[in-house]
Specification:
- By secondary structure, the chain is an alpha+beta fold.
- The protein has 18 helices and 22 strands.
- The strands form 5 sheets. An 8-stranded mixed beta sheet has the order 6-9-10-22-21-20-17-11, sandwiched between helices. Strands 1-2-3-5-4 form a 5-stranded mixed beta barrel. The protein has a 5-stranded antiparallel beta sheet with strand order 12-13-16-14-15.
- Strand 20 and strand 21 form a beta hairpin.
- The longest helix is centred in the N-terminal third of the chain and has 23 residues.
- The two termini are 56 Å apart.
- The structure holds one RNA strand.
RNA sequence: AGUGCUGUAGCACAAUGGUUGAGUGCACCCGACUGUCUCUCGGGAGGUUGCGGGUUCGAAUCCCGUCAGCACUGCCA
């Protein structure tokens, strides 16, 4: 027998028991004629004691054991003479009578401790050692708990989990597909799903009514701290529902998950129009933990002879409360440099300081009178001590830039508290987006998203650009603290509307039929109205725990360039394999 | 594809805007210690400064290239 107990469970009440423990040697401390050793497993640490006087051979063997040796010990539990109140098992120790080395261990490349000395890349190369560390195990345990609670809630709500295929068909729309060659069909390829979208819609046609799946999805796009090429979604679909039915169900799920795993009671989720989110926050995923909403100045700042503003499509600013005294000219200059970096790309930054003594200072003081600037202040309800930061330019760009500035100022002013979760729904996204370069529309969400009911007749009948562009999608995103956690929509379930949608997206009827004929065909056999949502599961784990990267919640993640550094994958394959698959490599590396 | 930061001992980092000896901490090895638990104390070993080239009397340091890691932009329907 390898063990009667784990390394985390023995207490003072167990004193006197004969026990068997197995685990890894965390660290040993030689102290004169005694040796203390911490034995570790997933459940905790237990101290082992060896004494040269009681058992010289055993003590000598114990002294030889290095870090991470795997051992099995027999012995008796006894009360410690000096206790350790930092440790759950700190009141007891094991007086070892038998010590068996199950496996020796080389010295690990970094210390396997909660506060490791290893850097990220080294830890990823030896991820199996990194995963021995408490904080990393804690993350995976959290993830497991979140998955269990998700299944529990959705099962109680009557959802059934259905597995959908991983080898499917490539579609050119949207993200790049990972592709798998077919040996039995030379020259042909499967694709890995970016999401089980069409399958879950077909399950609705089948009458399964409420479907969910914790499912791996794949996208062959560049990575970020919050983006991996393979990731997990809580994928759901429901029949005979309106938007508000879906929102209610998944607001319920989100609240339940926060309560069950973190003990956090979330407030009710406000619903924000996409247009308002863009106008007030410059983002479709606003961080509403703090205000500092945008105020537009076109009506009061134009026509005064300041050419930058006069030529701008939009003049818009934020108010940094009480910051007039905190930003020197040098600070403002640095902030201006920051926002002019190519990643943000603003042309310049205008400030107005309403100083505590009533003076007004501004970078555009020579173009505007004090009354002008006071007028701006009124729009912001600025008080003495406040500072305005103003950008101008093309509407879309300037909103995006000011969004970055707002978030940066929020961070600097300590307004983005990690203790608070502020969820909201963003709704009524545009249905179509005009692509200037390609000169055609593409779906903002995806081509199966239904337009809002009011727009359906117009879309079916009109080809007028402005009507099409103004159409709203019956789509919704869940945003928490400025992170997009999930998104979904009410789907199209009518063949004619779906055909019209593909037509607007530039598909020929033949191309639409070739790619999505199976779905449109299904719609003709009694498809119910339906809609759904998908949550980014990895992302949900990381935001719930304030992690910087979703990698912390993925057992074996890929690095920045999509490589698994532990496996050293991807890698070339054998000539024989290539031949069998009827494929050839034409370029080694670009 | 682009921009930025980083690369020095097993690990984390230091070394003036160029020259003398590339150091510190952790880990490791040896020794001392009967109540340690971040033990303590004494001693020791450990380096192609990512790689290639250039400038110079002299390069970890400056220049060019390259590779790798990270962050961001594009991209992610």
């Amino acid at each position: 027998m390898y063990r009667t107990h784990t390394c985390g469970e023995l207490r003072l009440a167990d004193a006197g028991k004969q026990v068997v423990l197995s685990g890894w040697v965390q660290r040993s401390r030689k102290f004169g004629k005694m040796t203390f050793m911490d034995l570790r497993d997933r459940y905790g640490l237990t101290q082992l004691v060896f004494s040269e006087e009681d058992n010289p051979q055993l003590n000598e063997l114990a002294e030889k054991l290095g870090r991470e040796f795997v051992v099995r010990v027999e012995g008796s539990v006894r009360e410690r003479t000096s206790k350790n109140d930092q440790l759950p098992t700190g009141e007891i120790e094991i007086e070892v009578t038998t010590l068996e080395v199950l496996n020796a261990a080389k010295l690990p490349p970094f210390t396997i401790e909660d506060e490791t000395d290893g850097g990220d890349d080294l830890r990823m190369k030896y991820r199996y050692l990194d995963l021995r560390r408490g904080p990393v195990q804690k993350n995976l345990i959290f993830r497991s708990k979140l998955a269990t609670e998700t299944r529990k809630y959705l099962a109680d709500e009557g959802f059934i989990e259905v597995e959908t295929p991983v080898l499917i068909k490539s579609t050119p729309e949207g993200a790049r597909d990972f592709v798998v060659p077919s040996r039995m069909n030379p020259g042909q390829f499967y694709a890995l799903p970016q999401s089980p979208q069409t399958f879950k819609q077909l399950l609705m046609v089948s009458g399964l009514d409420k479907y969910f799946q914790l499912v791996k999805c794949f996208r062959d796009e560049d990575l970020r701290a919050d983006r991996q090429p393979e990731f997990t979604q809580i994928d759901c679909e429901m029949s005979f529902v309106t938007r508000d039915d879906v929102l209610a169900t998944f607001e319920g799920l989100t609240k339940y998950l926060f309560k069950a795993t973190l003990g956090v009671e979330l407030p009710d989720f406000p619903i924000m129009q996409y247009d308002d989110a863009m106008r007030l926050y410059g983002s479709d995923k606003p961080d509403i933990r703090f205000g500092m909403t945008f105020v537009e100045l076109n009506d009061v700042a134009k026509g005064k002879g300041f050419q930058v503003f006069d030529g701008a499509e939009l003049i818009v600013g934020i108010k940094a409360e009480g910051q007039a005294g905190n930003f020197s000219n040098k600070d403002i200059k640095n902030l201006t440099e920051w926002i002019k970096r190519p990643q943000i790309g603003a042309k310049g930054l205008v400030y107005v300081k309403f100083e505590g003594d009533g003076n007004i200072k501004s970078s555009v003081g020579k173009f505007f009178t004090e009354d002008d600037l006071k007028g701006w202040g009124e729009k912001f309800e600025a008080k003495p001590g406040d500072m305005l930061l103003i950008l101008s330019g093309e509407t879309d760009k300037v909103r995006k830039q000011l969004n970055e500035l707002r978030l940066e100022m929020g961070t600097r002013m300590g307004l983005r508290s990690k203790d608070r979760f502020e969820p909201l729904w963003v709704v009524d996204f545009p249905w179509l987006e005009w692509d200037e370069e390609m000169e055609h529309f593409h779906a903002m969400h995806h081509p199966f998203t239904s337009p809002s009911v009011d727009f359906i007749p117009k879309i079916m009948e009109s080809d007028e650009f402005n009507i099409l562009k103004s159409a709203k999608a019956n789509a919704y995103d869940l945003v928490i603290n400025g992170w997009e956690i999930g998104g979904g929509s009410i789907r199209i379930h009518d063949r004619k509307l779906q055909e019209r949608c593909f037509e607007l997206l530039g598909f020929t009827p033949e191309a639409a039929e070739a790619q999505f004929g199976f779905l449109m065909g299904a719609f003709e056999f009694g498809a119910p109205p339906h809609g759904g949502i998908a949550f980014g599961f990895d992302r949900l784990c990381s935001i719930m725990n304030h992690a910087d990267s979703i990698r912390d919640y993925i057992a074996f993640p890929k690095n920045n360039s999509g490589r698994d550094v532990m496996l050293d994958a991807p890698a070339p394959i054998d000539e024989i394999q290539m031949k069998e698959l009827a494929i050839a490599v034409t370029v080694e590396k670009e």
